[in-house]
Amino acid sequence: MYDVVIIGAGVTGCAIARELSRYCLKTAVLEREEDVCCGTSKANSGIVHAGFDAKPGSWKAKMNVRGSRMMEDLSVKLDFPYKRNGSLVLCFAEKGRKKLQALLEQGQENGVEGLCILEREQVLEMEPAISGEVVCALYAPTGGIVCPFKMNIAMAENAAVNGVEFFFNEKVLQVEKQGDSFEIRTETGVYQARAVVNAAGVYADEFHNQVCGTKLRITARKGEYCLMDKKAGGLVAHTVFQMPTAMGKGVLVTPTVHGNLMVGPTAADILDKEGTDTTQEGLAEVLKKAALSVESLPKGQIITSFAGLRAHEDGDDFVLGETDVPGFFDAAGIESPGLSSAPAIGEWMAGRIVERLGTVPKKADFVETRRDIPAMAEMGQEEAAEMIARNPAYGAIVCRCEKVTEGEIVEAIHRPLGARSLDGVKRRTRAGMGRCQAGFCSTKVMEILERELGMKAEDVTKCGGGSRMIVGGGE
Asked: Which residues, at least 6 apart from 432, have a Cβ–Cβ distance to it below 8 Å?
């Protein structure tokens, strides 16, 4: 029997888990994939939105603004990359100025600080690569960028260190209320809990509808992206948006915290909740629309493309809090600005759950900070020499593109909730995220996984499940 079971180890579920780990509770996280950060949380824009484009009074507005304000302090405590680079919303016609002004006023009503409208000359001085067709732009200095993988993993690790139990490859099939508790049935067993948190992304409506009288409907909204090499990373310094539409914030052009340039996403509602394939048409749309903002996009610098699914709920807002079934809590419909909102959602949801469970004391020994894997590529010469002297594996480069060493990969494997696949190593160390996209380093990473985990070569996977890297064989 657990006090709380959380379904889903994405950024929302892990933010809630971390906040609950402050309390003397027995908490578990059930995740159907082999690692944290395997769904929407791994395939998004990595943007910390300022909070000007959400309807005043909505959950999106409240959680976005609060989450943005929390992000810098959280990034220091949990040691994940975050940068407040500011954002611009471009307007290309005088008739759009009124809409831009309304966006500014909406942001001010939401409590976003520092918003202002810049004229064409100011915009081009700030970002010379932006199209000369720009008329004006909304500037939001509190906008930022973050590494979504590192953020998700940091919160999960910190929750685990503070006693939260994580169960991977544990696909939830059914949730039922039984008296004062819940029975959560998975493919491998049964869990019981006094409270359940539904943070299951695009599948959150299924679990909600199993338990609750009021029904939810979540649509998978696919967004396709292109990622460009670090050679293109300096093309713009700010996150550059176009005027938002009913389908979202439109195609953006942004630097990443690691120095790449990213463009996207598209927005297409699909029936397949596993439909993360990219298409020729979708990627062409991304590049065409992004070129309206930045004409000189270096398309030859594209190193990869990917797609993610956003959990769009029919009411077009987050669905948060206790449902009509006492003890069953939703964190559903978490689409953009979900990443930005995650710290605030975790804080608010934990408070409501603790209220439901009664008097729950806080832990006297809660560990509030964690340190990330040391990145040799970011160290000075003296610091790197000291690290190598302590452990020579930190001097053996495995991923040449990102200059990731064997020591970093070994640490990624042996940390709390350590990597068990190539993608798990990649998200923790960036091995395989460079220009060659693991073309040279994957075999070496496989060897390290085999050695450190006592695995056979044919059992090493790209991302768990049946994604084995070596198949066939035999005589």
From this structure: 399, 402, 422, 425, 426, 438, 441, 442, 445
